[in-house]
Structure formats: structure tokens, C-alpha cells
């Protein structure tokens, strides 16, 4: 089964004015996790770009950032830039083949505290970084699955053409739309409040993400301290062992001075050694218990933070849905209608309440309007687009003889309407 083309994420590295390396985003995560090193970038600060690529190998978003590498080619473990979040919130950039992209760089950054870790690409001359990225992605050196066949377009007379700045649908990487002039008289305070709440939720989510990263680092530090304490305990235990051996040797030398003195010294030594070992063990046990309690509290705080992030994400989704729904209702109240065309159904006016089910499955919507099932509609549509006999020959191929086109789905009979006279008769005899 052929795989479907999807949006892809990749990272391009720049050096000496050109793209020197490219990799998919999962490979870049392996570099960040220390699983893979890049010796060619050892002891350097490299400029890179996180790009989102559509199924036609066109760049839709780009984030230009710096990444430091250690002497062994390992990436800086403290690097922490939310590339995907920045790409979704980026500003308007140039058109690289599929409309204006979303771009984030030092001079255009939606989150001010990440600005120092970004850089500005050259956009003119022979070293135009955006042109270099576009050409490198078009080569498809990453082996992406691309969309080979263009989507069938509707006839121009059946389309309602919008203004040029509204040709791009709103998606995860689309440019925010400006308010339509027709809506100038609509009160804006409700939409403004929704957008403010959405922005506040995203800022709170960013702060919680930073807090989780800080807690992870503290947890790592505490675990390192615990390991250091365990190593210190092992060293002291070894020291006590050597002291015991020295005292034992001393006891053997003093055996000639009297058995009574030796017994007393041995007992005293055992008591002192046991007391010291017990005290040290209790101290270390208290420290370990305290560290475990601290780790438990940090885990609870992390769980609380993750729960809050999930809640904020749900709030953001609700706000986005409310904004989109209110916009459609306002347009409908102002007299705008949404008209689509489907073969067999003709021009359909889609009510506001039917926008969401129509977007989920346009063909099912058209089939319902034609009073047939989705499978029946699809069979009729294949016949309508290619009116030829679909009967199978002995060699496995299709007959292919042209047949009369049935214009309405309800008049179409599978196995009869899409067969020539010879195979139609055979199908009727088989059915009878």
C-alpha cells in the first residue's frame, strides 16, 4: 500500500554561507539527546534552521537558531528552544512557492527571551539563505514522500474568488487573517477578550514548560548528589576496612603482652568501629530518605504542572473553536453564503451548522444530498468521470468500452450502468 504524503519537519545546518547538512527532526532529537554526535561541528557554534515541509516539498515555516557543540561533537545539553511552538507562532515571511511562510528569527521572534539564541538569515544576493533552503529541500535528499498528482480543481465559473490576502486557509502554519471590511461595524470586544485569554493561556503554558524544564534539571542535580553521597559512603567504608586491618595487625603484635589486654582492646575496637559505622549509616540513611522525599515532591509538582498544561491546551482548543464559530456566524448574519459544487448534486448551499460535517467528509455530504450511500456515490462518480465498461476480462484487465454516462447518482445501477451491452447481459444472467 502506498504511503500518503504528509507534512514533514527537518533541520538544515549552515556553514560557509551554504547548507552543509540536513536531517529529519527525529534525527535532530537524537543529536540533542546525546545518542548521535556530529564531530564535524566540534567546538563550534552552528547556525541552523528548523523547517516545516508540505507534501509538495515547499517550505511552510522556518525558525533560525544557534546550536553549540562540545569538543567531541556532542550538542549542548542545556539547549532548550521550543522550535515547534515558535514555528506555529511565527510572523509573516516571504513566499517560497506556496504562499507566505511563517518565519522566526532574531529580528522577528514572538517570545522575547528566546531572541538571543536566534539569527537573521540573508535574504538578498547569491547567499540568500531562504533560496538555498528552498533549493536544498526541492532536491528531496531527505527522501520525503511527495504528492505526485495535483488535486483536481473546480471550474473557475463555480468558484467565489476571495481577495489575494485571503487565498491561504487558516492551519497550523497559516498567516493570521485580518478583519474583513464588512465586519467593521461588529463589536470587537468579545473577540478581543477571547484572543487575550488565548494569548494569556499560551504564555502560561510557556511558563509551565520552563518550570518543568527547571524541575527536571533540579531532579538531575539531586540525583547526582545522591550518587555522590553513595560513592562517599563506599569510600568511608573502605577506609574503615583499612583501619580494622591495621588494628588487627596491632592486636597480633600485642598478643605477647597478655591475653587479657588483647581481649579488652579487641572488644573496645569492635565497639568503637561498630558505633562509627552505625552513626555513618544512620546519617546516610537520613540523607537518602530526605532526597527521596524531595524527589517525590518534585514528581508531584511536575504532575500538577503537566495537568495544568493539559487543561490550558483544552482551553486553547475551546477558544480557537469559539473564535472560528463566531466568525462564521457573523459572516452568515451579514448575508454571506457558502456554496460548493459536487457532480450529481450541483451547487450546494452549506449552512453554518453543516460546515464542520462537510469539512470532515465532503463526498458523504454530497451523497446524502443525492439520497444515496457514500459507496454508491463513489461508484457513480468513477463512472461519471470515466464512462467505460468496468467488467473484468479473462487476462485480468478491464473491458474499457465506452458506455452511456448516467448523470444522476440515483439512476446509476452498479454492475449494469457501468457495463457495455455484452457484459451487462452477462451480469443480468448471473444475477437472475
Automatic annotation (TrEMBL):
Domain of life of the organism encoding this protein: Bacteria
Entry keywords, A to Z: Coiled coil
Residue ranges of coiled coil: 191-225, 302-329
Q: What is the name of the protein in this document?
A: Chromosome partitioning protein ParA
Please tell me the species this chain comes from. Answer: Stutzerimonas tarimensis
Amino acid at each position: 500500500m502506498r504511503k500518503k504524503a504528509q507534512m514533514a519537519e527537518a533541520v538544515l545546518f549552515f556553514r560557509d554561507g551554504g547548507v552543509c547538512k540536513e536531517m529529519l527532526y527525529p534525527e535532530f532529537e537524537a543529536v540533542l539527546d546525546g545518542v548521535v554526535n556530529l564531530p564535524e561541528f566540534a567546538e563550534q557554534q552552528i547556525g541552523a534552521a528548523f523547517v516545516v515541509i508540505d507534501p509538495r516539498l515547499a517550505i511552510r515555516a522556518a525558525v533560525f537558531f544557534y546550536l553549540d557543540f562540545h569538543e567531541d561533537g556532542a550538542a549542548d545539553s542545556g539547549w532548550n528552544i521550543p522550535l515547534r511552538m515558535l514555528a506555529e507562532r511565527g510572523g509573516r515571511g516571504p513566499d517560497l512557492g506556496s504562499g507566505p511562510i511563517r518565519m522566526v528569527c532574531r529580528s522577528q521572534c514572538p517570545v522575547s527571551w528566546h531572541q538571543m539564541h536566534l539569527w537573521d538569515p540573508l535574504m538578498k544576493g547569491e547567499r540568500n539563505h531562504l533560496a538555498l533552503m528552498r533549493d536544498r529541500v526541492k532536491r528531496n535528499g531527505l527522501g520525503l514522500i511527495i504528492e505526485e498528482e495535483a488535486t483536481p480543481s473546480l471550474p473557475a465559473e463555480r468558484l467565489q474568488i476571495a481577495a489575494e490576502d485571503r487565498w491561504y486557509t487558516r492551519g497550523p502554519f497559516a498567516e493570521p487573517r485580518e478583519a474583513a471590511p464588512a465586519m467593521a461595524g461588529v463589536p470587537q470586544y468579545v473577540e478581543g477578550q477571547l484572543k487575550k485569554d488565548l494569548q494569556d493561556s499560551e504564555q502560561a503554558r510557556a511558563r509551565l514548560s520552563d518550570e518543568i524544564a527547571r524541575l527536571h534539571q533540579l531532579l538531575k542535580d539531586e540525583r547526582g548528589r545522591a550518587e555522590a553521597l553513595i560513592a562517599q559512603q563506599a569510600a568511608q567504608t573502605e577506609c574503615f576496612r583499612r583501619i580494622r586491618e591495621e588494628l588487627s595487625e596491632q592486636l597480633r603484635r600485642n598478643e605477647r603482652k597478655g591475653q587479657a589486654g588483647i581481649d579488652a582492646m579487641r572488644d573496645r575496637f569492635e565497639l568503637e568501629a561498630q558505633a562509627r559505622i552505625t552513626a555513618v549509616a544512620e546519617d546516610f540513611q537520613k540523607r537518602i530518605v530526605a532526597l527521596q522525599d524531595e524527589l517525590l515532591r518534585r514528581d508531584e509538582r511536575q504532575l500538577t504542572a503537566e495537568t495544568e498544561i493539559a487543561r490550558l491546551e483544552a482551553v486553547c482548543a475551546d477558544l480557537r473553536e469559539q473564535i472560528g464559530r463566531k466568525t462564521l456566524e457573523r459572516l452568515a448574519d451579514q448575508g454571506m453564503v457558502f456554496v460548493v459544487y459536487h457532480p450529481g448534486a450541483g451547487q450546494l448551499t452549506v449552512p453554518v451548522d453543516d460546515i464542520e460535517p462537510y469539512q470532515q467528509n465532503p463526498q458523504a455530504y454530497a451523497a446524502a444530498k443525492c439520497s444515496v450511500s457514500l459507496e454508491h456515490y463513489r461508484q457513480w462518480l468513477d463512472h461519471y468521470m470515466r464512462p467505460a465498461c468496468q467488467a473484468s476480462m479473462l487476462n485480468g484487465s478491464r473491458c474499457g468500452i465506452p458506455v452511456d454516462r448516467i448523470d444522476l447518482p440515483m439512476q446509476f445501477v452498479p454492475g449494469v450502468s457501468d457495463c457495455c451491452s455484452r457484459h451487462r447481459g452477462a451480469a443480468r444472467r448471473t444475477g437472475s
